[in-house]
Design brief:
It is a multi-pass membrane protein. Helix content is 11%, strand content 46%. It has 1052 residues and is mostly beta strands. A hairpin with a 3-residue loop joins β18 and β19.
């Protein structure tokens, strides 16, 4: 009976004898007294943390293991803490080896931390619950942590990554509110995004709160094979922050407020220069005058307000604020760990009258150890984001972006300067900026509401053998509402003090769009990890499935008046209802890691993938990869040589090869479909809606494949203060889609042949990085840089055909194996014509009219084939890539810390891509203003009123309103091309952390203030005021703004 439970029924409960009961009570009293005394036996200790050179380590974490109390060192490396007399301190700091020191009743402790600058024990997350020490990584993987991301105050998470990852290219081609840089890995295309183990698109990455990110790992080579489909362009693996075991409650609040300043936008010409260009055109062409000398002189002299140039650039583009605030709580016990975060960002628009973009983010990560073997976790993240601006025809930003040129400098936005009455200020009334606001144009609003719930469970079956499951539900609702008003333009009758309507825009639209995206992801895996003597094994097998539906509804109405916000059946003109476009994918995964003595490392992985896109029998594909690594510095022969051991402290050689799948083609192309509501006919007096066949079905489309080889080396010198890595890669892309041209079908069929997996391309390149980290006195500093070169080549083409050797030469870029892709062809320039006499004596017919259209200052072209005529037979390969990501991208970073003051700077740059000068930077449009840059640098008459006054030859031809792209001086040629090179200061930040001895008095463990800037300046090899990342060649894009922020970060 002694072993029976005390909670059994009275008849079977064990009863203590009275004498034993008294002894038990006495023992409990003595025990409680001892506990009370022990609880009071705390001591106050002080100490100092220094490095191996005796210098103070500022901000080192000091935590007592038993009492759980903690603090950080001040600017002199000192700390004070209340601990138990038998406690153990854990002292840690980034870049140093963590130490544990027993208190042993001491009142003062000095701790020396040893630098660990290589951080080979750093963990790199590669996904599927897998993480590896950096030392054992055999693939080409770049990573960055939360500390580096925190210094880039970007609206988007992608923006915070710019310049920090070798082999990863970023390019922000516009600065619209909420816009993010485009990301590519080694110029391979859009990568796959993994956030906390779940596949997402780049939009979800961009809209993460950068403050919630713990780490980013980028898989650049065949190591991405485990992710199967859509991973051929590389994988970006994101993990969000989580609480840690036995972590003391930590509250962090950080935020900033700043201003966005317009920059890098080509300025329009002033009124006097605009009129001068018109006068010059009329003088050269001998056409009637539209501007008299007297009127022109009034504008030059600015005789009154009516004759003062209106600066449309300054009026349309305004400075605007942006703000950010985030509060997060993290901590943990032995069993429960948590991280909770709430953030909000507000980015107002830089176009006058435009509201901009705002987003609210929520992140909640909770992990619970149910038992020592069974663990569960729940992660919830959500966001609400809104874009708000006036409702304008087409792209709501285009009209204002072009507004500085569409609106003439001799006009003003409002009649009698009254904002209630928009005036016509552009040759096309709709281009007039005065009506582009909420009152006169309407409103466009685009809102996303997104939530994702991840549930995970892990059970340790045996030591090292774990089963893990993940289930994710993602729901995104998008609602777009657009109301475009009719509008009126006015003139002011000063004599009668009335405003008269001179033109009316009658188009009214009310649009509604509702879209829902719903995705379910499940992942089940079994992993095993163990060490046997010098052998270490880590293996995983698993299954992953994903299903998504994407229904959408759209309605367009034409309401009878501006004030009607709804669409009824009488005003409805268009209605579409999407069926949801269901998509299903699944795959089986496997990976094995083995290393011997931490010297010889092998990794094998593979994935058997299936996609809904293809017909049965072609839906599945197997995509394997293998990699090896050799840590030479772990060999005995290396350690036995002092010079090698002391100077080259890390040398790892690695190589990988794999085949990755690519989903190509449209879904279900093996099935004949129909387009409904395509045409129609009247039958028996009624309209019958028509349907058409989508095209010929094909059974010959399946996976494309990318064979990726990577060979790399990692190096560490001088006790790992200097680190470097280099990777060479090539990618052979096969199974690209193309159609056969040599199979004829009757034209009456009305279809072309479907595409098949026929062609191939390949890429070659390298990426490299170097980093130096050291300390001089109290100054810690880091300098690093990286560079990436990647270029695509033409592979196989299905039976290429050419009508002549010239055509073969001319179109080699897309059709000849081994040639570069994206090569620009154009005429080759040979300077400029200096006079009428030179034009008259020129032996080559350049304009196909005996050179009668040529003028001094025009571009002169080389007759490459010597036939006396300039035409497309004289075109040659010129320049590098046009548009997209440059072939060469580089970045360098600088970090300094000194006694609480810190400095960070990130520079990015590129070269080997071609900029083509277009639009307002090349022509004087007949209905618009011209750029001030073009006027200042173009050829001009000495006297704009006298055609015989001679010419001042400028950098560019005459800016004449009657000239456009058809004029021979504007034909495609290297005269208008520049091989661009630039360097941009992407981020810079200066901060100061207040001494802890000040902040601890008010319960603050750390308080930092900073000022930061983005896009403050760029150096480039062109003198045009245009952002080098903007892909709009005429400069007409929403410019990337200069940003200055003032911020703080406080830990409690």
């Amino acid at each position: 009976m002694k072993n029976h439970n005390l909670f059994l029924t009275p008849d079977y409960r064990y009863r203590l004898p009275e004498s034993n009961f008294k002894k038990l009570i006495l023992s409990l009293i003595i025990l409680l007294s001892f506990v009370h005394v022990a609880a009071q036996n705390n001591i106050n200790i002080s100490g100092t943390v220094v490095d191996d050179q005796g210098e103070a380590v500022i901000g080192a974490s000091v935590v007592a293991q038993k009492s759980k109390n903690g603090t950080i060192t001040d600017v002199e490396g000192n700390f004070k803490l209340s601990v138990r007399s038998n406690d153990v301190l854990t002292i840690s700091f980034i870049g140093y080896i963590t130490q544990t020191v027993p208190v042993s009743g001491k009142n003062n402790i000095v701790v020396t931390l040893k630098e660990n600058s290589m951080l080979l024990d750093e963990v790199v997350v590669t996904g599927f619950g897998l993480a590896q020490k950096k030392a054992s990584v055999t693939g080409a993987i770049s990573s960055v942590g939360a500390q580096e991301l925190a210094h880039a105050k970007s609206v988007t998470a992608t923006g915070a990554l710019v310049g920090k990852l070798p082999g990863v290219n970023f390019r922000q081609d516009n600065g619209r509110p909420g816009a993010a840089p485009n990301i590519q890995i080694r110029n391979m295309g859009t990568p796959l995004i993994i956030i906390d183990g779940v596949q997402k698109d780049s939009g979800n990455l961009n809209n993460l709160d950068f403050n919630d990110i713990e780490s980013v790992s980028v898989l650049k080579d065949a190591s991405a094979a485990i992710y199967g489909m859509q991973a051929a362009n590389g994988v970006v693996v994101i993990t969000t922050k989580r609480g840690q075991k036995n972590q003391k409650l930590k509250v962090n609040v950080n935020g900033y407020y700043g201003w966005q300043l317009p920059s890098n936008y080509p300025k329009p010409a002033s009124a006097e220069d605009y009129l001068a260009a018109i006068i010059q055109t009329e003088t050269i062409n001998g056409t009637p005058r539209t501007v008299t000398k007297e009127e022109y002189q009034k504008w030059v002299d600015k005789v009154d307000e009516e004759h003062t140039s209106f600066d449309w650039y300054k009026y349309i583009w305004v400075s605007a604020p942006q703000s950010y605030i985030n509060a997060n709580v993290s901590g943990g016990t032995e069993k429960v760990r948590y991280y909770l975060s709430l953030g909000h960002i507000d980015q107002e628009g830089n176009i006058r009258g435009f509201n901009g973009f705002n987003r609210t983010n929520m992140q909640s990560n909770i992990d619970i150890d149910i038992t020592n073997r069974f663990k569960v976790g729940v992660a919830i993240n959500g966001r609400i984001e809104t874009t708000d601006n006036p409702g304008l025809p087409g792209d709501d930003y285009n009209l204002p972006i072009y507004g500085a040129y569409n609106n003439l400098p001799t006009k003003k936005p409002y009649a009698n300067n009254n904002p209630k009455y928009p005036a016509i200020s552009a040759p096309w009334a709709q281009d007039s900026f005065g009506w582009m606001n909420y009152e006169h144009a309407g409103r466009y609003k685009d809102q996303w509401k997104v939530i994702q719930i991840n549930g995970t469970a892990e059970y340790e079956i045996l030591k090292g053998l774990k089963a893990r499951g993940l289930f994710s539900y993602w729901l995104a609702n998008r609602r777009q509402s657009n109301r475009e008003y009719s509008y009126k333009f006015y003139e002011y009758d000063k004599e009668n003090d009335v405003y008269n309507v001179v033109e009316t825009g009658t188009a009214r639209y009310t649009e509604r769009s509702m879209e829902m995206k719903e995705e379910l992801t499940s992942n089940i895996q079994l992993s095993y990890e163990n060490t046997f003597a010098l052998h270490h094994v880590n293996a995983v097998v698993g299954f992953e499935a994903k299903k998504g539906t994407y229904p959408r509804m759209y309605a367009l109405g034409n309401p009878p008046a501006n004030g009607i916000p709804y669409i009824d059946k009488t005003s409805l003109s268009t209605f579409t209802d999407g069926i949801g476009n269901p998509q299903t994918r699944m795959g089986y995964i496997g990976r094995l890691n083995y290393d011997y003595a931490n010297k010889y490392i092998i990794e094998l992985s593979g994935r058997y993938d299936g996609s809904y896109r293809y017909k049965r029998g072609k839906r599945w594909g197997f995509f394997p990869s293998a990699s090896i690594g050799y840590r030479v510095t772990e060999e005995k022969f290396w350690q036995d040589v002092d010079f090698l051991k002391d100077n080259i402290t890390n040398l790892k050689i690695r190589a990988s090869y794999g085949v990755l799948g690519e989903e190509l083609g449209t879904a279900l192309s093996h099935i004949v479909g129909y387009n409904y509501n395509d045409g129609g006919a009247v039958i028996d007096g009624g309209l019958v809606t028509g349907s058409t066949v989508t095209g010929l079905a094909t059974d010959n489309i399946t996976w494309g494949k990318s064979k990726i080889l990577n060979i790399g080396i990692d190096l560490g010198f001088l006790d790992n203060r200097l680190n470097a890595s280099f990777d060479y890669f090539n990618r052979d892309q096969t199974g690209l889609l193309a159609s056969r041209y040599d199979v004829q079908i009757p034209e009456e069929v009305g279809f072309s042949l479907p595409q098949e997996n026929l062609n191939s391309n390949y890429a070659r390149g390298f990426d490299a990085s170097v980093n130096w980290r050291d300390r001089i006195g109290d100054v810690n500093y880091t300098v690093g840089g990286n560079v990436t070169y990647s270029r695509w080549y033409v592979g196989d083409r299905y039976k290429p055909r050419f009508s002549s050797e010239w055509q073969k030469f001319r179109y080699q870029a897309g059709n000849i194996t081994g040639r570069y892709t994206d090569v620009e062809f154009s005429l080759v320039s040979d300077g400029q014509f200096q006079s009428w006499e030179e034009i008259a004596n020129h032996p080559i017919d350049q304009d196909h009219q005996g050179n009668i259209t040529l003028k001094p200052g025009d571009a002169k072209y080389k007759d490459m084939n010597g036939d006396g005529l300039i035409n497309d037979a004289d075109w040659r390969a010129i320049g590098y890539r046009k548009g997209g990501t440059p072939w060469v991208n580089f970045a360098f970073n600088l970090a300094l810390d000194w006694k609480g003051i810190d400095f960070r700077a990130d520079f990015v740059g590129a070269t080997a891509y071609t900029y083509v000068q277009q639009g307002f930077l090349r022509y004087f449009d007949s209905n618009k203003n011209l750029s001030q840059y073009l006027w200042n640098n173009s050829t001009r008459l000495v006297d704009i009123w006298d055609a015989d006054s001679g010419f001042n030859i400028g950098k560019y031809p005459l800016a004449l309103r009657t000239r456009n792209s058809s004029d021979c001086t504007h034909w495609p040629s290297d005269f208008w091309y520049t091989n661009m090179t630039y360097l941009k200061m992407r981020n810079v930040e200066v901060g100061y952390t207040l001494p802890q001895k000040w902040t601890s008095k008010v319960g603050i463990s750390r308080c930092r203030f900073y000022v930061s800037g983005q896009n403050l300046f760029s150096l480039k090899n062109i003198d045009i005021d245009i952002d080098p990342e903007i892909t709009a060649e005429n400069g007409m894009a929403y410019p990337n703004m200069k940003v200055v922020n003032f911020g703080f970060s406080v830990d409690f």
